[in-house]
């Protein structure tokens, strides 16, 4: 029998002042916990300590870890009078952690470490404390009032945290218990498991959300509907199941397709007999490999396939594909064009019949920059995942891989001469002094062997570069700085300590990135107080110069020059203010820096010049780049625009494009693939800009007219918004905001996968696919229904009327073609490539005892079971299917093997 005890209502507020940069999207504020610095923490395992502590032995600690049942539960996101009115807009959520023990725990000499996504404002009761160590790492400890936990007893720790928790994935896994002198033990009940049907993560320790009003609303004004089967059914209802729409469709959509009069299809069962005509075999080998994967091999008996130059060379990537009954011709101006022509041939192939229809395709890309960003720092992802991603990028004509390899939580690339970056910075474990690893974060657990740890060797990186280059894809390395740099900082501090112990003081200081005398109190957006490079120390720039030179050397070895490097430059959080090094720098420098507020700009400007002197273009995120003085920047720089359209994001995009910079769009509400597909708390991902970014929404993106999206989108709470794109000046007549100048345009678009909640390669693929195909569609093809941009400026909202009825219908018709193409053809090709794409959740309703169901990608099969029976195929029809409640539904992958997540029909 379990005994449930609710800890008595005595509120213990744990606060400390902090300075932080406000998020532009969620108004995240300062961390509010006492921070335990590594040197002050004594819970460090050591072989020379006794194996017991009080009543705890290693065996007993292991037993607790194996049997302690932990449950995490969000009670409500509705704030009450106990919320901290000075923090996070006065909002808080109420949550509980249940501890149920199978053995009696009387000792107080233990602590449980875990990752808490939102900082805690207060804890109820006097039996436990929760303190924040750094970032999201928290510690639960018995307090003065702890009376032990009896066998079978449940003790509930109730607390309030900042803002809200709207997803079950917010509750990070791998809690672990420690006691002084003993090895840490993972608490088994908090480990992830895998759903055998979907292959996706399950969180058995998290209580499911059950109430939309109290658990899934951000605030009282929130109108976003939970994506129940009924909501999904309504959304899918206007998309017909019409396989004919997919017959001659190519994704991404070509500029022009003309079917030939000879209607007889062309069989590719005998393969292709290729004539290269001087084109390098390596340039098209990857495209040919994909065709072979689909069943179209190179053979002497295949249809004649000829590669030829375009009569008049066009833009990069332009091609012409001419299919007739006796011959296939691909004309292009460059290697990329030939690859894209073959990719379009693969898109046309019916994988069941291996046939294509005679046609002429004339095509060229809308944007030169068609990118995908993947974060391997927060949680590491394998080299194989990157290679598989490159294959699919090439298949859909994407040409830039933004590889984010260093952030607060990990450094993922071997750098010659700085082994500490990977020896220490590539792994997280329970070393609170951070001599051998970084602190655990994001539910990584106490052991460095966890799969979320790791790095690419120099040989791995060279292989990635060459693999990408063979697919006409440029790899853009990124080591984030000066903020988001904790992994580098702590690695260099560990290096410093080692060399100082060896009496090598000068060598120890050579690459140091932090000022030990800096007493600045700040909190980054991820709640770190020590993650920003000290930009006033010359050793910081010595380090940067070293890293860039070593990465450039790897590119040279690979035969792929480094000509674009992403420095990050975003989200610095009030660092340096109390740094003696910075005070001295400002007092004595000759760099034109006169106050602390100019240090961020100084760093970006200096680093961009350092890169330019090496012949490398600098790129950075738009918020950091906006702080620079354009006259101090190289003429050629790239800015990645990550501003939310609903929050006026078009303004910074236009400002930076108007500087002549290469502005690459990455609007979070459609291009952040770490956000949930649908508004459902069981879906993976963070959700600070969007809670429902499905393929249809990405397809709707009008990249050429950012503010016009206000006519078709709502904000994160499903509320309408207005985008004012008219000229604005201050009292002195200086332009504050204004429209995009006619002489400038955007360089391209890029999708982003950040990995805070993405712990495996399978989940990474789930989050990227099939959304990556819609990214490719919008990067390559300009749709006829996009609202033309108005360079004189305009105000856009839900009633402004620039997005006409005819445009909306054209957009809907275009989506019908794309949705059917994915359902009938393209997802099966992902199956053949073993890509673990997201199988969608179905729409379904019950009317008069009959089940009606549909799916976002017509052509995928739906199954149902009623009253606990067996799964049955749902045959789509207007009459519906007789069922007995309760009814469950799910979608099957295109190849009939994997299953999507099961929903109960409401």
TrEMBL record:
GO MF: beta-N-acetylhexosaminidase activity; polysaccharide binding
Domain of life: Bacteria
Domain Chitobiase/beta-hexosaminidases N-terminal: 66-231
Species annotation: Shewanella pealeana (strain ATCC 700345 / ANG-SQ1)
Reaction equations catalysed: Hydrolysis of terminal non-reducing N-acetyl-D-hexosamine residues in N-acetyl-beta-D-hexosaminides
Lineage, top ranks: Bacteria, Pseudomonadati, Pseudomonadota, Gammaproteobacteria, Alteromonadales
Cross-referenced Pfam families: CHB_HEX (PF03173), CHB_HEX_C (PF03174), Glyco_hydro_20 (PF00728), Glyco_hydro_20b (PF02838)
Family: Belongs to the glycosyl hydrolase 20 family.
Xref: SMART domains: CHB_HEX (SM01081)
Protein name (Swiss-Prot/TrEMBL): beta-N-acetylhexosaminidase
This enzyme's EC code(s): 3.2.1.52
